[in-house]
Design goal:
112 residues, mainly alpha, 4 helices, elongated
């Protein structure tokens, strides 16, 4: 199918290959890193962690799908850009929360 499409798009031919490669690289990074982070954060409940990951992905897809009929491309791009900037901040907050929770549990265990 991809070969047939490449013959129909004329001048896009080279750029379409670049687009496929970049999409593949992005997906490889997402699939490995994202799921690895979920596994690290929830080592005792990996089933729940991956269910949570799937829920987040599915919800994001559904919201984007339903908003795509209302919002234009630049608005969706602005939302996506904003969320991509907020992602590292959320990760840093999750790490901080995890460390403080672990420290509180250690203090409780030592007090017992």
């Amino acid at each position: 199918v991809a070969f047939f499409l490449l013959t129909q798009v004329g001048a896009w031919r080279g750029w379409l290959v670049v687009l496929y490669v970049l999409q593949g690289v992005g997906r490889a990074v997402y699939e490995s890193t994202s799921k690895g982070i979920f596994a690290d954060f929830f080592p005792r409940d990996s089933g729940g962690a991956f269910a949570n990951c799937m829920l987040q992905c599915s919800t994001a897809f559904a919201v984007c799908f339903f908003l795509s009929s209302v919002l234009t491309g630049p608005n969706l791009a602005a939302i996506s850009g904003t969320l991509s900037v907020l992602t590292p901040l959320g990760f840093a907050a999750a790490l901080r929360l995890r460390r403080s929770t672990a420290t509180a549990c250690e203090r409780t265990a030592l007090a017992s």
